[in-house]
Structures
1.
Amino acid sequence: MVFSSFSFLFLFLTALLALYYVQPARWRGGRNLVLLLFSLFFYLCGGPKYLLLMLASILINYLSGLLVEGGRKSALVLSMGANLALLGYFKYAGFLMENLQALGLPVEIPSIALPVGISFFTFQGMSYVIDVYRGDAKADRSILGVALYISLFPQLVAGPIVRYTTVAHDLRHRRETFQDFYAGAIRFCFGLAKKMLLANNLGMLADEAFSAAGLTASAAWLGALGYTGQIYFDFSGYSDMAIGLGWMFGFRFEENFHYPYLSRSITEFWRRWHMSLSGWFRDYVYIPLGGSRCGLGKQIRNVLVVWMLTGIWHGAAWNFFLWGLYFALLLLGERFVWKNLLNRSPQALRHLYAMVLIVLGWVLFRCTSLAAVGQYLGAMAGLSEGPAGQSLYFVKQYGFWLLAGTAASLPVKDWLAERLPERTKEWAVPVTALLLLGLSFLQLISSTFNPFIYYRF
């Protein structure tokens, strides 16, 4: 089940809101139980056997939280091993066997379907146990509390990655207000529009370009820009919907994006993009390895480890490993090689530098093989040929969406919010949200099934 579907909007969400709010506000346990049952059903829609995996993850992390409290390191090691074993089997076993087979070893490649959102809920479970071990949180004595934290449907399958310390208070003591519900509904409508109107239309440009037999250089760049917009609006749109749904039920999730395409360096980009994942690797991998408080060699090692892990976290394929290594080298270059030159450069040049490197990075991410990466980058460099008028066709078909995406990636909404009179905003914001909701419904009616890109991670 996806947020951008009639079954979610008109059946699941409608039934949940009705049953949730019919419970008295003072009966927090009743509302939590309704939310937990609907969250488990939400995951059940992905397949009954994957619900068993979710329940296993809940049980492992609940028991681990009780065992590691007080600093029991052996229990922490066992917990991390169990979580990583589940993730490793479902996500990486097939990839490992493929590579062993490529080396000539007589192994069979298992057919293992990837459970939706396993990377997200596994990381959430691990962060809960680590925080309890460190003493940053108390172990939850109620398995229902841990179950709701790990399975909470808004951010279950595509983030943001929510820390237990962020929502521990909300699990038992949150207050739902009309103001938060209203703001959450508005946020959800804007997020849905990002997905249905911008991501899906820019995705059609990307699909055409990346599947073309031949491309001119300009067409290849247009296709790469299409994917650059698609992945941003797809993922940030989901995050907006998740955060909005959280507000509707009294939860305050942390922001996951902050206009990343305004960045003037790769370092700044990763402070603005998928902030919950960057923060997770910083706090649970980079800093424990020593962070920036050690010698040059270890600093380089730490960055390489974090970014190679970040790459393969996104997918079991060599292009994701290469993508992680690519950004690791750029971040190391900005820190140790061309930092001063970059800081002295004009802001416009720094922004161009960052965007070109970001777009190239998304090509690594989008291509399904290393051969495809080489072919597409060659096309961007003008080393291939495409049909005459190919770029003009792309502009005519998708130029409007490229312009709309460019505007939506800038803080235009924030700029208007600061300058519009309060009385104007009172009607302009809900009217805009309803208009976007109507347009999204029209797009939904005419579209086929289109899950979010990050569902497969």
2.
Amino acid sequence: MELSLENVGIIKNSSIQLDGLTVITGKNESGKTTAGKALYSLIRANSNVDDAFEHAKIAYIISQVTKIWIALTAMHGSYYRTIELDESETPEMHILAALSRRYSPRSTTLDSMMSLLVEARDVLASLEVSSLITFLTKYRPYLSAPTRNEQYIRTIAEQFESRRSDALNICDSAIHTIDAPSAYTSFLTDRTKQFLNLSFRGQITPVRNPDAVTGIKLSDDTSLIFDLRIRNKSDFEYLDDSSFVNPFNQAIFLDDPFVLDKLDSDDYYLSGFHRRDDDSITSIDVFPYDDYLKQLLGSEESLSFFDELEFNRTYKPLFEMINSIVPGEFLQSSDGTYYVNDGVKLHVQNLATGSKLFFIIKLLLMKGYLTSKTVLILDEPESHLHPEWINKFAEILVLLIKEIRVNVLLTTHSPNLLLALNVYSQQYSLMGKAHFYLAHKDADSWTTSLDCIDDNIGDGYSHLSLPLIEMHLQQDDMTGG
């Protein structure tokens, strides 16, 4: 698998292999993290996209139903009590009740919501003002306060025809949007745009060269999977030769072990994507990568009993290695999130930061999120690790790749981690699936490239070790050594 980046952030034109382990090293501000964010966004945008599209259409219809009711009556529906109609009421009354409370009285499946739109269109076309007044008068105790005012109801009657026209236009537009042949492609493109803009805070295109065309491609030996172009910073387009055969169903981006401390908080949705107030079908499950990781770690997912037995049997060395660092279990309760070991409960906020990193990997494993269809992206994971644990972490990553075939993209500033990954890749016969890159700034000083150093990994060691050597030389000069 190959990821190609052109004018993405400060990366000018580079390609990296994704065949198991991919390691990028280099100076600060050299574009290392950029590659991971781009890959994460592309994979997440194209994962489970059919389900996401269906859920987005349901949410879109619900939003349009709200607009139809407001257009018809100039007031919001019931937010306090649900209107309960008996079977003797006319279908017309049931449709008005469904519109007033913003969802179908039967269920909120896509078919039921589409049926509501179509039925509402027919009812609105023939609706008599007397029927609407009867509905508002009969059920006004159930509705929000403005509808309880008789004068307000008379005002609605006086303006009924113009409001009917507005409501019908919204209904027709919603049906057209849902049924449009381009709806799926538009949704996928917009979904990709949302993920990329969240990951890059709207600055995926080069800030010093805003007119450049940005390109992100993912391909394998036989086909081009995704080929995305971004023009004028906001014009996103998948090229027609994209096959959209997503090789991954999961992408996880980890750059902060302290995400484990935040599982007691329910506010992850506050920084996520909220539905835009427009007439397009937009994703409702797009969140920043740290909030998404919180959802995975806090989920109730876990391996089944038999899957866990198989995991312990097949991956025993890997599991034992992780347990040698963090042997305890995970406990979420009403009073907080805890790491439990030998009967002792330790709040996760009091767990050593390095231990949190290992425990996050353990949780992702035990919840079944690390598979051969997963891309695990780690940004400078060595930051909180002692050199001994750096070696352990490197070995665990290599075993994840070898035994479970997880795909790992990792950035590092540590010569220790770079060496450990190289050594364990050789020890576990992973070298054909391990690739190393050095990021460096080009002559113009504000663009970078990612150069493969598989055949000369010493360039990576010397690059990372040079500052230490310089300090030793400076010390020798000061001491006369």
3.
Amino acid sequence: MTNKFILKGVCALVLAVSLPSWSAEICPAEITTTQAASDLPSGYGVAEDRYGPHRLQRVGVYHGLVKDMGELVPDIQKKTASTWKFGKQSKNDVNEVACHYSRTRIVLTKALPVGTKSCTATVDPTIFGEIKSFKCQ
């Protein structure tokens, strides 16, 4: 009898570890960058603008790699949220996310774990062009 309980417990633990059960913030809310000028015209100097950190402005979800430009349209589009849903994928299938930030050309990219079921971008309706969160599960 005790062996049955131990076996059930081990099976439940293996199942819990092997199933993709996660929810994570994918894109940082803000990033800091540096910029440098090159090949300045004669007589010019460089001064820096102080804008502070760059806020998350847009998220792109891609089937495949971002560089292959296969951006997906959200399955559900509302005023304050956009949701992308994914079907079953093999270990060779890749979905990536591109995190776009205000006042910079820097784009962060990240592969989504195999087994990701959906991603949701929540928009702050009071601040134009600002994403409050981008989470996947």
4.
Amino acid sequence: MIAKREIRALLADMESEKVERTVSTNNMDKFAKVVCAFANDLSNKRRPGYLIIGANDNGSLCGLKVTDELCRNLAGLRSDGNILPSPALLVEKISFPEGDVAVVEVQPSKQTPVKYKGTTYIRIGARKGEANDEEIRILQEKSEIKAPTFDSTPCLYSNIDDLDLELFKTDYLPKFVKKPVLTNDKRTIKQQLASLKLFDIKHDCPTVAGILLVGKDTKQILFGSYIQFVEFAGQNRASKVLNERQFSGNLITMLRELDYFIKYTIQKQRPVFITVLREEMRINYPYEAIRELAMNMVMHRNYNTNAPSKFYEYADRIEMDNPGNLFGKVTPDNFPNETDYRNPVIANAMKMLGYVNEFGSGINSVQEILAANKNGYAQFYFQDMSTFKVIVTNADPENKGKNVEINDEIVGIKGRNVGINDEILEYINKNQNVTIYELAFLLKVAPRTIERYINLMRKNGVIERIGARKNGYWKILNKREK
């Protein structure tokens, strides 16, 4: 349970999404909804939430005397059967000179969504509310106790006629089953498909993975299963469109087309003058890095949506914007060193088809390739819970922009006249959970450089780390160094 001095800090923090204050002592329906919301931990902060009974909205105490009956009633929320799966919580009475408080500490659940009387509640900033369909999907995805993944579920209202069986036999099946085994294989086509999780025997229909990988008209069944490519002449979407294309169809066909397109259309090189006697070939975007990011976009995206993946090329950068943020065990703190799969059937198929070489090391390889080509690190953005964004800056000096502008927010390197300290503070002010690695990507410096500045600011009392390295957050104490 949290220490007494930390309760004081929580009472004073009016903006925290992890604290609920109330003077009511008998509104168990309200308390249960709060517990449910804390257990769901939609923002995936992985920190406990606190219901504090006996405190006003402004953080002052109301002079409550906490009884044993109140503590028993609060503890009963854990096991009365109304909140499922049952939450992990502790109840404690804490006394101050101004009065008592009853504190309910609720741990984030590993099995989400958690529901109270059949309804899913979440924290939306400093208040609670009912989760919508998209928020419930996010809770399902981050659950550590997994239900069948979306790509392995039956694609109802489709049938075997929606699959290109000849493509399956000639291009797909031989990648998974050795030729001698296939020669003696007496199974029906449905059984062969089902063995690779492309068909659901029970429902007599293809799975989502089956439609995606070998479907005849994938987009007609899974409406958002395509990539929208647009090339703009300038640095924003208001500029002239130079090229527009849609990559759709089953993944066997689409991935082949996407691979060729990146190699022969996206990657460009030209001679750059170095000296009178020497020229250097400058590549705008290295094929291997952009290909890896595009394949990750296909492999990790959320297909349970009508939104396409976006692949936009501007004069100074490439942006890839994908439905579905970080999945499962992967968080901004452990990305890209942790691995989890939203679409394990698709991921395995892409590896067997040769589009993914080794799981778990792709992003680190991308960063090395981009750095060697003088693009700078790819920049990753996790702020939007429903999308994943990556930006790669053009390495060609003729087009390379100094600033990258997204949603009126400058996220590229800004020039050092304002100082790295001020840039770090600006990002912390926008996102108190920003990691050292994210700051390194944003400011295009080494993580060790960020650590050095962070340590100096902590030593000088400018910022403070609240909580552990993995699950804590930054707090700005003074925006100017002492």
